[in-house]
Amino acid sequence: MTYAPGTFGHIATDIRSKNAGPFWLTIDIFCDEDSWTELTAAEVIAPDRIARLYSVTAEDVNVYLLPELLVIKISFPRPVRQAGPTDRDLHAGQQFVLLAETEVHEQGAGSTPTPTARYA
């Protein structure tokens, strides 16, 4: 998939999402040296920014930086439990798209991250 310049999906080497148990999901951002430097800069992957993007509380967002692997791991509660009657993404494999299509550098302080496209 091709992402717009300046988005997480364009800068990172790869982004994936998956379940982290039936109640949590995790997003893995794979980097090279250059993208690692840019994406680990202050506030680019802050819990409050991820919380606004995925409609969860910042206290529930865990961000893990794994410099040895050049990977950023983000975990937070699933919007609905896995395999529940309203679960539209059983394996959480599509949840990364919202982050991938979001511009890395926010337009203004306190602004809500805006993806370049929305899915219904």
What is the structure about, briefly put?
This protein has 120 residues and is of the alpha+beta class. It has helices spanning 8-11, 33-39, 47-54, 96-100; strands at 14-19, 24-30, 62-66, 71-77.
Can you put this structure into words, describing what you see?
With 120 residues, the protein is α+β, with helices and mostly antiparallel strands. It has one domain. It is 20% helix and 21% strand. The chain has a four-stranded antiparallel beta sheet. It starts with 7 loop residues before the first helix and ends in a 20-residue tail after the last helix.
Q: What is the helix tally?
A: 4
Low-confidence stretches: 109-120
Please give the largest β-sheet: 4 strands, antiparallel
Rg result: 14 Å
Helix-strand sequence: HEEHHEEH
Distance between the termini: 18 Å
Question: Could you tell me the strand content as a percent range?
Answer: 15-25%
Sheet with the most strands: spatial strand order: 1-2-4-3
What's the helical proportion of residues?
10-25%
Identify the overall geometry: globular
Number of strands: 4
Q: What class do helices, strands and sheet pairing give? A: alpha+beta
Number of domains: 1
Mean pLDDT: 87
